[in-house]
Amino acid sequence: MANESPYNKISILNRSFWDLWLQKIFRNIASVKYQFMVAFFWLVVYGMFVEKTAKGEPFISATVGLAFLGGGFISLVTSRLMMRSSLFESREVGELDTDK
Which of 1, 44, 53, 61 is deepest in the core (most CB within 10 A)? Predict the structure, then answer.
């Protein structure tokens, strides 16, 4: 069949909402940005709740840990906004799509 869609071959759940949702989740997990975020956030959470000093206190205090996590989130949001609204974006291209 020459007109058969190639997307039916890679579909898990017959191209339903959940199929597209799973594909988006797998795409995000495969991204390097997500992997860095998980690695750095795990280190902060591990230091806050698991690792203890000699006195029995957390290795990373709650204030410092939340500052790191909040700063990481703000950095991701800021970079996403900057990519969507660049000063040098040309009008010919249209909307800048960073997901492709």
Answer: 44
